[in-house]
Design brief:
Elements: H1 4-15, H2 22-49, H3 54-61, H4 65-72
Length: about 80
């Protein structure tokens, strides 16, 4: 499960996309990408622990089974 602090951090970053100039927005996008990546990693791990196949995870993420297995299969 995604931690409530992570969710709040993502909300803050999304909100900051409207603040400041282009550099601030780019920094917020970069940080948001990192947060989402961490959340995805946790979700994939939990899905595998719950018995979901690589195919089911790939479909949920909108990628191929090979892509998701390559990224997360060796963890």
């Amino acid at each position: 499960m995604v931690d409530i602090m992570e969710v709040e951090r993502m909300k803050t970053l999304v909100g900051s996309l409207d603040d400041g100039g282009p550099v601030n927005r780019l920094q917020a996008v970069s940080e948001l990408r990192q947060e989402v990546g961490r959340a995805e990693t946790v979700a994939v791990r939990q899905a595998r622990q719950a018995g979901l196949s690589w195919e089911a995870i790939a479909q949920a993420l909108g990628v191929t089974r090979q892509a998701v297995h390559k990224r997360y299969g060796k963890r």
